[in-house]
């Protein structure tokens, strides 16, 4: 058989056959007097095996080693690893489809809604307080955390924030955000600033406050500066004082 006949018989392209030769998956056959490769039944069987194994997900180097008997691992071990990898991919696809289903359930989904299901559920619980600029900034920070943090760290933080989703906690948050809104345009030295900072720090659950305090960035941290830059001077001062109170509480 010529290379084109071999490729057609197995259902691959002649380019694939040549690539398999180059990668050592398929040994070079004998050549005719004119230099053309001459393939036999054995070559067709090897090529068919290689095709089946690559379709299962084996790399060409794994296929080469399996077919030549040079693999340090049994084919069963390789296939078990492939099966485990496919199971992880299936779980990831199911999770992505779950997120898509949640987005598609909205009449007008927005890019800000494309967060993990756990974060989306948390943000829905805080919907009553999301109409203030400060609350909107908090929601944006949480969305950023959802994208940047490791899933375990994000889930742990969400668990620590769970007490903030009770009706009583949401009602307190509404009052705090209203007081923050009232400071828009106020002087940072306004006497309401210190009282509100203390109430904000006290609003956080104890374990959450301790966790945030241990991971609190310094005032010169670019991330903290970017967050504070979006607030009015008095509101930014509230945030600074609240962070200082949390840090002090963790140290004492």
Automatic annotation (TrEMBL):
Pfam short name (any one): MerR_1
Keywords: DNA-binding
SUPFAM superfamilies: Putative DNA-binding domain (SSF46955)
Coiled coil spans: none
Domain HTH merR-type positions: 1-69
Cross-referenced InterPro entries: DNA-bd_dom_put_sf, MerR-type_HTH_dom, MerR_fam
PANTHER family listed in its UniProt record: HTH MERR-TYPE DOMAIN-CONTAINING PROTEIN, REDOX-CYCLING DRUG-SENSING TRANSCRIPTIONAL ACTIVATOR SOXR
Protein name: MerR family transcriptional regulator
